[in-house]
Amino acid sequence: MPELPEVETIRRTLEKLVLNKEIEDVTIYWPKIVKQPDDPEHFRMLLSGESIERIGRRGKFLLFYLNHYVLISHLRMEGKYRVVPKSKEKDKHTHVIFHFTDGTELRYNDVRKFGTMHVYKIGEEMTKAPLKSVGPDPFEEAYTFDYVKARLKRTTRMIKAALLDQTIISGLGNIYVDEVLFLSKIHPEKRAHLLSEDEVERIYENVRIVLEEAVRLGGTTIRSYLNGLGEMGMFQQRLYAYGQTGKPCQHCQTEIVKIKVAGRGTHICPTCQTL
């Protein structure tokens, strides 16, 4: 699943490709992707004639701000956007096409069909599902040490499960949680409410450090992630823990091992990250 760095990279790429383009029409081949409004024809009518004024992001969600509406898009496991000429043959996994008046198209491709789209009037997007319950992401002003400390102290869950909870901090997924906990030298099974203030501070700081570096490198290409230009991210070359099973820890040379935590494959150094 694309995490914050991948979604931010897609956002920046799409801004260069579709900003100020007017939507002439929308074709929906898989109606279940459209969640709000629940009538795909109403969805099409709301967006037709609107222009894309800016593209925002909240955690893992893309926000297309139009003249009067906001299109909220979640890519889930394998959703992708591509901008192509209308003459290009449609891929069998293309499920929504936004036709622009200039003859180009923004195509949403999703092999697993898990992605979602919601449309609301501008100003309503943060008060309705799916964004209503989404916590601040690490690049927002609301992401402060005091906020992180208070939220983690309120849960008895394992720290990995807490960091994956999008209502606490949005944007983190399996890859970056493993990296943050490795750099913080904290075992993923440690209970969040038992973390010391120093440990919370390490997590707070490393979340930003890891995500900023991943954004700079265009995200992490694991399996099928590509940005809007079909380019891969390069952060996988900087991974310390995730996917590094059997390789030496870059701090102590102990082999990285893979365990299961909160139902997720998890990569740790058994020497640096003790429970």
Structural account:
About 25% of the residues lie in helices and about 25% in strands. By secondary structure, the protein is an alpha+beta fold. The strands form three sheets. The protein has a five-stranded mixed sheet with strand order 2-9-5-4-3. Strands 1-7-8-6 form a four-stranded antiparallel sheet, with helices on one face. A two-stranded antiparallel ribbon has the order 10-11. Helix 1 runs parallel beside helix 6 and helix 3 (about 145-155) crosses helix 6 (about 195-215). The chain is elongated. The two termini are about 30 Å apart.
Q: Structural class, from helix and strand content?
A: alpha+beta
Q: Please, what is the CATH homologous superfamily of the largest domain?
A: MutM-like, N-terminal
The biggest sheet amounts to:
5 strands, mixed
In the predicted model, the low-confidence regions spanning at least 5 consecutive residues are 221-227
Oligomer state of the chains in this structure: single chain
Rounded mean pLDDT is 93
Q: What's the shape?
A: elongated
CATH architecture annotation of the largest domain: Alpha-Beta Barrel
> What's the helix count?
6
| CATH topology-level name of the largest domain | N-terminal domain of MutM-like DNA repair proteins
What is the secondary structure topology, with strand pairs?
Blueprint: H1 4-18, E1 23-28, E2 34-36, H2 40-47, E3 54-58, E4 61-65, E5 69-74, E6 79-85, E7 94-100, E8 104-110, E9 116-121, H3 145-153, H4 159-164, H5 174-184, H6 197-216, E10 257-261, E11 264-268
Parallel strand pairs: 2-9
Antiparallel strand pairs: 1-7, 3-4, 4-5, 5-9, 6-8, 7-8, 10-11
